[in-house]
């Protein structure tokens, strides 16, 4: 029979032991600045990306280790969204990996808060870099990141899919409404099996480019928003007639396919994104060939395009192996053989040494040619994003997704995003 | 409960024996605390300490990197103007309110089936318990996501019967049923406890009831339910608290975003996103403490109301 006293005691013990089991600890690490071939030091390197990048990175690490027998590199990767949550957890515990692939969106968050190593204090050769590109990795005169490569925005399309629907390939000289008409034609002829693209108004950088085409700055130099609610309303209303039609990939499909993109999953014929996604898209979709053309603009002389460091290499401020970390970064950004391994999958190599040492053919040549073809339209890279920009970029996509689910109206979505943005800017002021 | 003779202290029997006995008792206590020490240290260092610091942080603006700034009750005040927060409360409550009773009903039903004497009961018990052993793992959430995705087995199975819902994972109105099914499927732990409780109920009661002509329904409500009520109470309490803490499966199924359209934005997931995506640790701490308080109040209500429906043996009733 169940007796009250026994019963409650058992409950108490059970609960307490469950609580005790829930906690667990973390081991320490060994010290030592430099290694030798017999006793190499191990540095941790982490990056975001898909399987394709993982394979290339593994090759690059193996090459580095064979050239530097005194250093071992322990690699680790996740997808982009989970990447930043992991870094935040590690930073809070003081355990960031020694070397990390980094994004411009998060450079201020960690750099200004003393989490990243000032790479000016270690030996990394930056003589082969464009002078205009290096400042993007710098905050207040300190260098926190070295760009590996550059990328630019583009419209990707799959020529084979267009041919099968009998649609002519785009030239890339188009207005926004011509672009939308193109997507609609794909969607109408694709009839639910092939869509035009995802709702491109949900992509922050595409919005930023659209603003630049209208000569509006996204952020002011004092870290405030440079555009108005009406600007964002106009932007999100651009696609209001297309949402829920066969032109745009339905949002539930987009969600199900994550972490892959609909374009990489052969669900859409076009996608607006960074030009260095070529290798990933080819690997994901299995398509023979993908092509890219410039983004639409109503002003043919102002495409709003710019070259952005597609990713940076950074080191943790707390790394015990500054020298080894610096050598690995130097190798990753400058070595021509690394260029041969990655081709354009990280973007077009930023270091001239690496770029000249890399042969680009096939798909990679298309990416390099694309960046050459838009050279005349390129303007200065946008002002460095504000602290917390990564969060804003993510919530831009999330709110646009709610919009596509029909959970929000355009006005409601604009209000929601502005509330979050203003709240965040106030928090970090 | 019986006490060991060395520890018992009979009135009027103290006299000269007392010093020796109290020394003995001191030694026993020392031994007791020594054995308790490893757990106690862990409890203080890993649970009490962090809890106190999170209480402090909940009154600050803290971004993980810079020293926290004291802002009083601001975090708690802004919570209720935060639409995402209110959404997460709604999502979590509907999960607790629908998921927990369904899970317990499933657990009790299966426990009663397994309580009868049949061949191969050991096998069935293990088979039904297995999902809850592996259920908390990451792999199951991934499998679940694949099963309920576009043209996954669930979609195909339902289509066979003419029900075309499509993938559940991307459909905001189907993600909650999917999450509830996941928790109901993991009924093994409460089931085992129910089973142990059922074994404690004396068979004579059922025999006597049968003789008096009671049917299965009558037996359930007049014998099983009251006799099992302490176990039901325990399971209800534990599963409710558990349900409030759901995190891992929601995190994996929604890629850590709480989507689609915020339909899996559970309280703890939003807390995590606030803390580790938005670097608002003070805000996240305030959320954590609010959850502690709410769960505490609910537990208290459970205990209060339990007096009217939970029957312990030995109670004069």
In short:
The complex is a heterodimer of chains A (about 425) and B (about 325). Chain A is an alpha+beta fold and about 425 residues long.
Order of helices and strands of chain B: HEEHHHHHHHHHHHH
User: Mind summarizing the main beta sheet of chain A?
Assistant: 6 strands, mixed
Rg calc of chain A: 24 Å
Helix content of chain A: 40-55%
Distance between the termini of chain B: 21 Å
**Count of strand segments of chain A:** 11
Mean pLDDT score of chain A, rounded? 88
Number of helices of chain A: 16
Report the sheet-strand fraction of chain B.
Answer: under 5%
User: N-to-C terminal Cα separation of chain A, in Å?
Assistant: 63 Å
Q: Report the helical percentage of chain B.
A: 55-70%
- The strand order across the widest sheet of chain A is 2-1-3-10-6-11
- How many individual β-strands of chain B? 2
List the helices and strands and how they pair.
The complex is a heterodimer of chains A (429) and B (317).
Chain A: H1 4-22, E1 41-48, H2 51-67, E2 71-78, H3 80-92, E3 99-102, H4 107-111, E4 138-139, E5 142-143, E6 146-151, E7 153-157, H5 159-165, H6 176-190, H7 204-213, H8 229-237, H9 251-257, E8 270-274, H10 278-285, E9 291-293, E10 308-315, H11 322-334, H12 336-342, E11 348-349, H13 352-356, H14 363-373, H15 389-404, H16 410-428
Parallel strand pairs in A: 1-2, 1-3
Antiparallel strand pairs in A: 3-10, 4-5, 6-10, 6-11, 7-8, 7-9
Helix pairs in contact in A: 2-12, 8-16, 15-16
Chain B: H1 18-57, E1 60-61, E2 69-70, H2 74-79, H3 83-115, H4 121-134, H5 138-147, H6 153-160, H7 175-185, H8 188-200, H9 203-211, H10 216-244, H11 248-253, H12 267-277, H13 281-309
Antiparallel strand pairs in B: 1-2
Helix pairs in contact in B: 1-13, 3-7, 3-8, 3-10, 3-12, 4-8, 8-10, 10-13, 12-13
Characterization of this structure:
The complex is a heterodimer of chains A (about 425) and B (about 325). By secondary structure, chain A is α+β, with helices and mostly antiparallel strands. Chain A contains 16 helices and eleven strands. Chain A has a six-stranded mixed sheet. A three-stranded antiparallel sheet of chain A has the order 8-7-9. In chain A, β4 and β5 (about 140-145) form a beta hairpin. The N and C termini of chain A lie far apart (about 65 Å). By secondary structure, chain B is mainly alpha-helical. Chain B contains 13 helices and two strands, in the order αββαααααααααααα. In chain B, α8 packs antiparallel against α10 (about 215-245) and α10 packs antiparallel against α13 (about 280-310). A two-stranded antiparallel ribbon of chain B has the order 1-2. Mean pLDDT of chain B is about 85; it is low at about 1-15. Chain B has helices at about 20-55, 75-80, 85-115, 120-135, 140-145, 155-160, 175-185, 190-200, 205-210, 215-245, 250-255, 265-275, 280-310; strands at about 60, 70. Chains A and B meet through α1, α3, α9, α15 and α16 of A and α1, α10 and α12 of B.
């Amino acid at each position: 029979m169940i007796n009250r006293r026994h019963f409650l005691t058992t409950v108490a013990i059970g609960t307490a032991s469950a609580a005790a089991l829930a906690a667990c600890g973390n081991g320490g690490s060994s010290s030592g600045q430099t290694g030798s071939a017999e006793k190499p030091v191990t540095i941790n390197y982490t990056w975001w990306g898909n399987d394709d990048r993982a394979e290339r990175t593994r090759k690059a690490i193996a090459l580095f280790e064979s050239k530097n027998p005194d250093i071992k590199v322990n690699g680790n990767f996740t997808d982009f969204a989970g990447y930043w949550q992991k870094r935040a957890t590690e930073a809070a515990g003081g355990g960031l990996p020694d070397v990390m692939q980094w994004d411009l969106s998060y450079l201020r968050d960690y750099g200004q808060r003393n989490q990243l190593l000032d790479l000016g204090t270690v030996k990394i050769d930056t003589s082969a870099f464009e002078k205009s590109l290096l400042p993007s990795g710098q905050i207040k005169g300190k260098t926190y990141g070295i760009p590996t490569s550059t990328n630019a925005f583009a419209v990707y399309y799959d020529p084979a899919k267009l041919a099968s629907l009998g649609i002519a390939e785009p030239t890339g000289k188009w207005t926004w409404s011509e672009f939308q008409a193109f997507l609609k034609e794909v969607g109408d002829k694709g009839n639910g099996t092939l869509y035009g693209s995802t709702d491109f108004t949900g992509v922050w950088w595409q919005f930023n480019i659209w603003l630049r085409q209208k000569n509006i700055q996204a952020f002011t130099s004092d870290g405030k928003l440079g555009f108005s609610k009406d600007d964002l309303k106009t932007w999100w209303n651009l696609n209001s007639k297309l949402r829920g039609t066969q032109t745009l990939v339905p949002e539930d499909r987009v969600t199900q396919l994550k972490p892959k993109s609909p374009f990489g999953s052969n669900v859409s014929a076009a996608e607006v994104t960074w030009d260095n996604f070529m290798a990933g898209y080819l690997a994901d979709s299995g398509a023979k060939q993908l092509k890219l053309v410039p983004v639409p603009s109503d002003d043919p002389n102002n495409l709003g395009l710019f070259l952005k460091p597609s990713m940076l290499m950074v080191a943790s401020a707390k790394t015990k192996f500054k020298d080894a970390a610096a050598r690995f970064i130097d190798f990753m950004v400058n070595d021509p053989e690394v260029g041969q391994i990655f081709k354009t999958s990280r973007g077009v190599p930023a270091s001239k040494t690496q770029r000249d040492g890399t042969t680009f053919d096939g798909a990679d040549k298309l990416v390099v040619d694309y960046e050459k073809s838009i050279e005349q339209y390129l303007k200065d890279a946008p002002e460095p994003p504000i602290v917390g920009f990564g969060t804003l970029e993510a919530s831009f996509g999330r709110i646009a997704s709610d919009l596509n689910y029909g959970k929000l109206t355009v006005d409601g979505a604009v209000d929601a995003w502005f509330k979050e943005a203003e709240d965040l800017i106030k928090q970090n002021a | 409960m019986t006490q060991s003779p060395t520890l018992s202290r009979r009135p009027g029997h103290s006299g000269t024996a007392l010093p020796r006995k109290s020394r003995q008792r001191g030694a026993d206590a020392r031994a007791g605390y020594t054995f308790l020490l490893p757990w106690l240290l862990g409890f203080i260092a890993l649970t009490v300490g962090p809890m106190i610091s999170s209480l402090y942080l909940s009154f600050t603006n803290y971004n993980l990197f810079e020293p926290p700034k004291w802002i009083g009750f601001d975090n708690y005040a802004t919570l209720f103007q935060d639409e995402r927060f209110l959404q997460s409360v709604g999502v979590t409550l509907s999960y607790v309110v629908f998921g927990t009773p369904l899970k317990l009903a499933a657990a009790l039903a299966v426990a009663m089936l397994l309580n009868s004497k049949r061949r191969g009961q050991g096998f069935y018990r293990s088979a039904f318990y297995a999902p809850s052993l592996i259920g908390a793992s990451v792999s199951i959430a991934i499998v679940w996501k694949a099963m309920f995705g576009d043209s996954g087995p669930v979609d195909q199975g339902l289509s066979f019967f003419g029900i075309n819902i499509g993938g559940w994972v991307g459909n905001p109105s189907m993600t909650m049923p999917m999450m509830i099914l996941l928790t109901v499927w993991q009924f093994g732990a409460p089931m085992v406890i129910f089973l142990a409780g059922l074994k404690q109920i004396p068979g004579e009661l059922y025999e006597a009831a049968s003789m008096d002509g009671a049917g299965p329904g009558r037996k359930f409500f007049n014998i099983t339910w009251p006799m099992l009520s302490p176990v039901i109470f325990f399971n209800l309490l534990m599963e409710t608290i558990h349900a409030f803490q759901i995190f891992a499966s929601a995190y994996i199924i929604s890629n850590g975003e709480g989507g689609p359209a915020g339909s899996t934005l559970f309280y703890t997931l939003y807390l995590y996103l606030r803390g580790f995506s938005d670097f608002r640790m003070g805000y996240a701490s305030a959320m954590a403490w609010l959850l502690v308080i709410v769960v505490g109040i609910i537990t208290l209500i459970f205990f209060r109301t339990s007096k009217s429906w939970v029957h312990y043996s030995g109670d004069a009733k």
